[in-house]
Structures are given as C-alpha cells and as structure tokens.
Amino acid sequence: MALLDVRSISKSFGAIRALSDVSFSVDAGEVVGLMGDNGAGKSTMVKLIAGNFPPTEGAIVVDGKTCHFHRPVEARAEGIEVVYQELALADNLTAAENVFLGREIKKGFWPFRILDKQSMIERAGELFAELKSETRPRDLVKKMSGGQRQAVAIARARLSNAKLVLMDEPTAAISVRQVAEVLELIRRLKSRGVSVMLISHRMPDVFSVCDRIIVLRRGSKVADKETATTSPEQITGLITGAIREA
C-alpha cells in the first residue's frame, strides 16, 4: 500500500483549471521528483497535499485513509511536512530554537512553567547528528549557509516524525557545495524510511536522488517514470511539450 495516493485530483480557481485529473502515488522511503515548467501546476499540487486548500475533485489518501485537508495542521497530523524554498526560519534565533519554534519543550508546573532550553538543545543536536549535518544547535540561523538552513528546516520536520516531506526548490540559489549537502540530507531522510517529494527545476539534482520522476504540463500529468528508465533529454522534452507524453 502506498504512503500517499493522489487520486484523480483536479483543482479550479474560478474559471482557471490549475490541475486536471492527476493521479500518482508515493511509497514509504521513496524519493519522487515533481517537475514541470512555470504554471504546470506543481505549486498547486504541493499546497493541496500540504492542506492549504482542498481539491475541487478527487481524493488524497494517506496510509489507506482518505483525507480531507483544509488547513496545514491537518496534513501535519497525518505526517506530511513541507520545507518551502523561503524556509520561514527566524534569523535572530538559534538552530535549536527554530527546530522547536511553536513546539517548545517546557518544564515545571503551571503557572510557573519555563522553557527547557537544555532539552531542546540536546534533542536538536540528536536530529542534526542523525542527518549527519554540521549544523550546531546553539548557532544563530542568520550566520548559517543555505545548506545548514535546510538542515534546520528538515530537522524541524523530523521532530514531528514526518512520513512525507515535500521539498520546494531546496537547491535554488545556493552554492554547489551546499547543493551537495542538501542532496545528502534527502538521502538521509530516505535511509530513515521517510518519503520525499522533491519539487525542482534542477535536472542533475532530481536525477541524483530521485527514484521516480513525475512531470506535469499545463495542469496534467504527462509522465511518471522510474529515473533509471529515462534521461534528462526525455524529461526536458516532456516539460517543454516537444514530447507529448511517456
């Protein structure tokens, strides 16, 4: 049984049809690339899975359970986390404080409960060690590289025991060395049995870490191929429309 099963999803915004009858699945521990040109429907699909709004038609099934998400907190409760390109980190806080932002550990008894900073630092350190990241819990986010920032965002997703992490353009606008760090983080998630859906324009990144590649064009799925059975040239043709479908 698939971890995520997207069944005949369509989404309209008034007269605009952003997605039309799209179906695909993601297995546990699988890394799936979602590719397509601007306006292909990638962002809409991510927001549907993440619970930002419901589909117009179709169903989202998680672990065999049909889900009706209207808010991100509902998707999060089913083990779905999103790491957006902007990351939404607080630059003035430490890595540990960002990992636990909104989910702080407290100690003591009401009304004298206080933050248990040491427990949060220790747990964040364990998560960074699990991801084999050089990020340190006490470091300020504003002093971090792009790769380290991604590690903080992914550690936050791991904190909630996410089953599926949606990553929106995680390697955009970072250095070659930092790209390698982020791709290794994705491999670490896979090794832990966490599924990843990678939304990216970067062909080398997708072919480096993804088991399968799904291509959307103008709101429709035109390909769902195992990475080993396709090529960057074929995927490019599918994205641009030079190849109709595969």
Automatic annotation (TrEMBL):
Recorded GO MF terms = ATP binding; ATP hydrolysis activity
Q: Which SMART domains match?
A: AAA (SM00382)
Give yes or no: UniProt keyword tRNA processing: no
Which keywords accompany this UniProt record?
A: ATP-binding, Nucleotide-binding
Any Pfam family the entry gives = ABC_tran
Keyword Ubl conjugation attached = no
Where is each ABC transporter domain found? 4-243
The superkingdom listed in its UniProt entry is Bacteria
Stated role:
Involved in beta-(1-->2)glucan export. Transmembrane domains (TMD) form a pore in the inner membrane and the ATP-binding domain (NBD) is responsible for energy generation.
Its name, as the record gives it, is Sugar ABC transporter ATP-binding protein
Organism the protein comes from: Bradyrhizobium manausense
